[in-house]
C-alpha cells in the first residue's frame, strides 16, 4: 500500500467546483492550408520549408499515417512520405485564424489562457452564455469553430488543467471527451504514463526501468520513493497520479520569458542539438514578434540523460533584432557547456527574456 498523505488525497467535492475546457485545433497549420486550397484536401500535407536544416511545423492526418510528425527533420518526412506535398508556413495567416478562434472563446468566457496559436485553456466554471454544463460549452465552441471557420477542434472537459489536457487528446481528431470529478481516480489508474503531459519517451523508458508503466504504478509508490528516482519532479508525479492540479487558468498573462523546448525520443549528443535549437529559436522569435516585445537575454537549457539541468545565458548590449541573431546567440551558448563530448542529452530548450516592452 502507498504511504498516503491526506493532504494529497483528491477531494471530489473540491474537484467538482472547477470546470476547465482545453481546446486543441486539429493539425492546425496543415488544416488551414487544406481549407484554403481545395487541391490539398485528402492529401498528405507537410507544413515546412524543404532543406536539410528545416523541420516539420505541422503534418496533416493523411501525412501522419506515414509516421510524419511535427518537429522531425523535413528530410525525414520526405523519406517517410515521398508523395507528401510540402507547403511553406504562413504564420501571418495562421495567427489571423487563431484570433478568429479566440473571438469564439471570448463569447463564452474571459478566462482564456492560450498555450500557442492552436490550443488554449478556458475556465468555464461560470460562462457568459448561460449554458448549463461545461460539456455543452465545449460542444458549442467546437460547433461554432466548424460552422464559422470550416476547421475542426478537439476538446477535453475536466475539473483541472492537467486532466483537461489529457481529455482533449483522447478522441482526436474532431472529438470531445469529458472526465467527471467522480471518475478521475478510476480514469487515471489504468492510464499509460506516456499520456501525462511532459512525459516523453525517454522519461517513459526511465520509468519502465523502475517498474512504472501505468499511472496506477505511480499512485502505488510513496512520495519518498518517487523523489528518490525523479527528484523534485517526483512530488509533481505523486500529485498528478491523484488527479491534483491547482494551477489556475491565467488570462492575459505577461510572460517574463518566452521559451520552448524539445524532449528527444532518444538521448543525443550536443552536436546533434543544432537543428532543434534552430527550430526552437525560430518558434520563440515568432512568438515575441506576435506580442511586439523585444527581448535582450537569450537562454539555452539542456537536460542530461541523468536528468541534470544546465542553463547558459547571454545578454547583448542591444535588444535582439533578428531571428538570425537570436539563433546565433543560442548556438554560441553551446560552447559554454563544459561536459564531455560523449555526454547525452534528453531535452533542449531556448528562451528569450529581459523584455524591453
Structural account:
The protein has 357 residues and is an alpha+beta fold. The chain folds into four domains: 14-28 and 92-182, Alpha-Beta Plaits; 29-90, MutS, DNA mismatch repair protein, domain I, CATH 3.40.1170.60; 190-240, 5' to 3' exonuclease, C-terminal subdomain (DNA polymerase, domain 1), CATH 1.10.150; 257-355, Dna Ligase, domain 1 (2-Layer Sandwich). Helices cover 36% and strands 21% of the residues. It has 14 helices and twelve strands. A five-stranded mixed beta sheet has the order 5-6-1-7-8. Helix 11 (223-230) packs across helix 12 and helix 13 (274-290) packs across helix 14 (323-332). It is globular, with a radius of gyration of 21 Å. The record marks 29 as: Substrate discrimination. Belongs to the DNA polymerase type-Y family. It catalyses: DNA(n) + a 2'-deoxyribonucleoside 5'-triphosphate = DNA(n+1) + diphosphate.
Strand content: 15-25%
Biggest sheet descriptor: 5 strands, mixed
Can you tell me the CATH architecture of the largest domain?
Answer: 2-Layer Sandwich
Evaluate the radius of gyration. Answer: 21 Å
Provide the low-confidence segments as ranges: none
What is the class of the largest domain in the CATH system?
Alpha Beta
Helix content bin? 25-40%
CATH topology of the largest domain: Alpha-Beta Plaits
Characterize the overall form: globular
Q: Please, what is the average pLDDT?
A: 89
State the order of secondary-structure elements, H for helix, E for strand.
Answer: HEHEEHHEHEEHEHEHHHHHEHEEHE
As for the number of domains, it is: 4
Which structural class do the helices and strands define? alpha+beta
Q: Could you name the CATH homologous superfamily of the largest domain? A: Reverse transcriptase/Diguanylate cyclase domain
| DSSP strand count | 12
Biggest β-sheet: strands ordered side by side in the sheet: 5-6-1-7-8
Determine the number of helices (DSSP H or I, runs of at least 4 residues). Answer: 14
Task: Give the termini distance in whole angstroms.
Answer: 53 Å
Site (Substrate discrimination): 29
Pfam family, one: IMS
Organism: Edaphobacter dinghuensis
GO biological process, one term: error-prone translesion synthesis
